[in-house]
Amino acid sequence: LRTLFTGKFKDIERIKNTKGSEISESGYHELFRLFDQVSKQYYSLTSHTNIADSISNALKTEAFNHKVAIEQAILLSETGDLITNFILELIRQKQPIEKVLRLLCLESITKKGLKFHDFDKFEREITRYYGPLEQFTLQNLNKAGLLTRKGAAKPDWDKVVEGFDLIQEEAEPSDFSNPEDVNFVYSGYAPLSIRLLQLENYGWYGNESIMEPLPGKMTHPEVSQEKRQELEKAAEKKREVRIAKQKDLELRRKQMEKSGSSNPLALALMESENRTDAGEELEEQSNEDEDSETRKKREILVFFIGGVTYAEIAAIRFLNRTLKDRHYLIATSEIINGNRIVDMYRGNLESVLTAGAIF
Is the pTM of this model over 0.70? Predict the structure, then answer.
């Protein structure tokens, strides 16, 4: 943003410093129009610069970076007392309960539920520091499957991550104006909803095993047996390409380790190259029977029932810029974020009495 804003301010200053002797008589009308436009842009840029500075300052705080580090540790399924102790400390500091519950739900989803003694401990501490009404919040989150004890039927997070390639630890693009994958929206984590759209781009047939860990039933339009076989063959070919690339990567890694020349940067570059090559082959395969000059973009309407995040919108915009054969449109009930989702399940006295949960 700094580069963009600086360029805009330079353009404005250049127009403001235009000398009258450099303009023809017929060009004064255009100059006055530009001055009016520049004035509006200047005030807008000033506001956006102040907003960007405020966001930048918030991102640099120790509290924010510590929270992000904990969230990434949870997503990577790391174990130990670090995460538990951090959440307990937030509770005892009486931090906003939305922040506490977001982390607890994330921990529950990625670990297929909390350990019984941890769940009971968090329940006691939340009731103690935030009041008894939060018991209803915990019950609501439990019913929704967001905050549960071990043993509850939950999707296998590790299988979902592996099947959809959700997390790439080394994905730290230096230029956010030109990212290579949708994982840039969460600094290495690709939203599952967007991965589903990308999978749909190549066809869901033959990928049932990848989607099996997800809750709910998969439905798709009926197609002919011939078309189904064609799609299944294409999916099988993609799997073979992916497996071959992975084997090649593993062989190269072993060779580097044997020669004693392995280092994290080299391995990261190899894996990045492997993903890029595989993506290029898939792109060629999907376009081999199509004429790129005459192909038109299909418009696909995507419904987000319950809400969509700004990060998902940014990821879909990225797909619209990079895909050659389709353009996604978004329909949703509202724009949401983590705090908003948690707030939907908050317990309050009015709803409790209305539901007759006490009397």
Answer: no
